[in-house]
Amino acid sequence: MNNKIIIEPKSGRSIRVKRGQVLRVEDVDGGQVADFVCFGLDDYAEKFSQAKTRVRNWTTRLTVGSELISNRDNVMFTIVADSVGVHDIVFSPCHSHVYEHLLGVGPRNGCFENLSAAVEPFGISSDDLPDPFNIFMNTGVREDGELFVAAAPSRKDDYIELRAEADCLVAVSACADDVTDCNNGKCTRIAMCVTL
């Protein structure tokens, strides 16, 4: 990939993507989730919406042809290539409260904190961070309604490509969860790249 940005384990980065450009998010080492959020480049109050994306696509399983929808019902991205086909639009990002109070491993930064740090230079508050599109995250709902998280099925060099349908500010984190099965018990790198 030209102009590849490597997102180190347990960290986040941001990038501007113009309408018509394609953002490629790649699993560098395999088995790693990437949390993705986006905002309108001209108005950060417009942002990705998990709920409206579920309703517009009428599914919780996004893949080629699926659209990422904003809180204002506009299409922000369309998935144009997908080597995995397993992603999540149900879970919030992992965060310090989850690690300390639910998983009992003490306070530590999660994707919420890392995505917040990635957009803070643009004046976006952590209170304005939307729930993410969790790329390569393997989740589901059991018959009794219980949620589950399984190991990410992505392998080395697996990818998803998203075409921007509007000018956007994107932030992506290499998920920080090395406690559950989410990232196969360890955190590795994610890469992203913008192409025409």
Q: Report the principal-axis shape.
A: globular
Overall pLDDT: 95
Radius of gyration from CA coordinates: 15 Å
User: Topology as H/E string?
Assistant: EEEEHEEEHHEEEEEE
What is the tally of beta strands? 13
Q: Estimate the strand proportion.
A: 25-35%
The portion of residues assigned to helices is 10-25%
Low-confidence stretches: none
Biggest beta sheet summary: 6 strands, antiparallel
Q: Largest beta sheet: what is the strand line-up?
A: 1-13-3-11-6-5
Number of helices: 3
Structural class: mainly beta
Could you tell me how far the N terminus lies from the C terminus, measured between alpha carbons in angstroms? 12 Å
Structure description:
By secondary structure, the protein is mainly beta. The chain is built from 3 helices and 13 strands, in the order ββββαβββααββββββ. Strands 1-13-3-11-6-5 form a 6-stranded antiparallel β-sheet. A 5-stranded antiparallel β-sheet has the order 2-12-4-8-7, covered by helices on one side. Strands 9-10 form a two-stranded antiparallel sheet. β9 and β10 form a beta hairpin. The model has no long low-confidence stretch (mean pLDDT 95).
